[in-house]
């Protein structure tokens, strides 16, 4: 799931957000987004929904957002990991993050 995560500090109003950080780079490089495009968004610790790009410049993006879906339930998984060597720990954490 490619979900644009939003924080409380991103909001200008209840339904408007401004992005100026790494997420803006992600919009340009990964999504190749343009004005009018719709993206899946999620509020950290809150609901998920949809965002529409109102304005997109190299410096910032303004989105209109609406949240109407609960986040998916947490998976009932417990990871037990002995302390491996640093090189293997790095690979293991990358694999765990993709799960």
Task: Set out the fold topology.
Blueprint: E1 4-6, E2 11-13, E3 16-19, H1 22-31, E4 38-43, E5 48-56, E6 61-69, H2 86-98
Parallel strand pairs: 1-4
Antiparallel strand pairs: 2-3, 3-6, 4-5, 5-6
Alpha-beta classification: alpha+beta
- Global shape: globular
Mean pLDDT value: 90
Please state how the strands of the largest beta sheet are arranged side by side. 1-4-5-6-3-2
Distance between the termini: 12 Å
Query: How many DSSP helices?
Result: 2
CA radius of gyration is 17 Å
Give the percentage of residues in beta strands: 25-35%
SSE succession: EEEHEEEH
Q: Which range best describes the helical content: under 10%, 10-25%, 25-40%, 40-55%, 55-70% or over 70%? A: 10-25%
Unreliable spans are none
* Major sheet characteristics: 6 strands, mixed
Structure overview:
This protein has 99 residues and is α+β, with helices and mostly antiparallel strands. Helix content is 23%, strand content 34%. The chain is built from two helices and six strands; from the N terminus they run E-E-E-H-E-E-E-H. It has a six-stranded mixed sheet with strand order 1-4-5-6-3-2. Strand 4 (38-43) and strand 5 form a beta hairpin. The longest helix has 13 residues, at 86-98. It is globular. The model has no long low-confidence stretch (mean pLDDT 90).
């Amino acid at each position: 799931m490619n979900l644009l995560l939003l924080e409380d500090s991103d909001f200008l109003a209840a339904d408007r957000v401004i992005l100026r950080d790494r997420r803006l780079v992600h919009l340009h490089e990964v999504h190749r987004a343009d004005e009018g495009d719709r993206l899946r968004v999620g509020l950290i610790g809150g609901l998920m929904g949809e965002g529409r790009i109102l304005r997109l410049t190299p410096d910032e993006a303004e989105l209109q957002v609406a949240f109407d879906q609960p986040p998916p339930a947490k998976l009932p998984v417990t990871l037990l990991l002995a302390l491996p060597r640093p090189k293997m720990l790095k690979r293991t954490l990358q694999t765990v993050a993709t799960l």
